[in-house]
Amino acid sequence: MKTLALVLLVLSVAEPLAAQSVEKQLVAARDTVWRAYFHNDTALLRRYIPPAAATAEGSKEMRWNTRSDIMDGARGFANSKARLIDVKFSDSQFSIAGHSALLRSNYAVIVESGGRRDTTRGRATELFVRQGSTWVNPYWQLEQGAVGAAREIPLPDTLGANFAIGDTAKMAGNYRTFDPKRRVWQMIGSSSDGGEIQPGLTWSDGRSRYAIQRNHGVLSRIRYVSIEADSFLWRSDVSTDGGKTWLLDAGTMEARRIAK
What does DSSP assign to residue 227? Predict the structure, then answer.
């Protein structure tokens, strides 16, 4: 019995350790491919990117590329005299099945050109396939500035009627008033994208809070969940056909209090 228990314990510990090892290999492969591209390291690119590789890039209109296009892009970056300062990843999510793995993460690429530094952010979905001891990268999709790319945005420490979120890309604000007869909050606002955010409603069921509003023909249903004294989670589904179909979790946010 003791021997059996020991074997079961070893197996239970070995499986998580093996998964951690694979994740480290995938992170290393991802880092190698990205840095090889910006350093125009054709030997590494040919090793990690197979001949039949394809990529899709763009948030609104997808653009397909082949391995030849990838090589041309790396060469073009090198010829531009721009310099990679760093590439950073966050919120990495792994889905591993046999010899294949899907890795989704937020990325931030910092480059310098002419003495000026610029940062490009977005969401990456990358497919890796194990060939021998190497995880090759036959496909990826990059969505620059995509929904789901986490960013740290300082917010006013207030739960008052006026509430705004701002960053370098856009500014949005809204105003809320409470309707005691209907027991709901009425909400109206505007954004730097232009136009008015049409009146919406917010309410609570005692555990979570909800909001629904329309902006530029897009209908949003929003949930505030896991509400604590210093944090909450925010999730938004969107519909462009009046609520007939929905894109779930089109936007997510984790908010936490950083000061009082």
Answer: -
Biggest CA pair distance of the chain: 72
The answer to whether the CB of 249 falls within 8 A of the CB of 235 is yes
Whether the full predicted model's pTM is greater than 0.90, yes or no, is no
CATH 3.40.50.720 fits 14-144, yes or no: no
Domain boundaries, the chain: 14-144, 162-256
Helix (H, G, I), strand (E, B) or coil at 112: strand
The C-alpha atoms of residue 247 and residue 220 are separated, in whole angstroms, by 10
Going by the DSSP 8-state scheme, the letter that residue 195 receives in this structure is S
Q: Rounded to whole angstroms, what are the CA distances from 185 to 9, 160, 164, 232?
A: 54, 12, 17, 19
Which residues lie below 8 Å from residue 58, measured CB to CB, with a gap of 6+? Answer: 142, 143, 144
pLDDT in tens, 183-229: 666 655 555 444 445 556 666 776 777 778 777 678 888 888 887 87
**Residue 9 burial by Cβ neighbours in a 10 Å radius (0-12, 13-18, 19+):** exposed
For residues 19 and 258, give the distance between their C-alpha atoms in angstroms, rounded to a whole number. 34
Nearest to 199 by CA among 189, 191, 207: 189
Cα 200 to Cα 94: distance, rounded to the nearest angstrom: 37
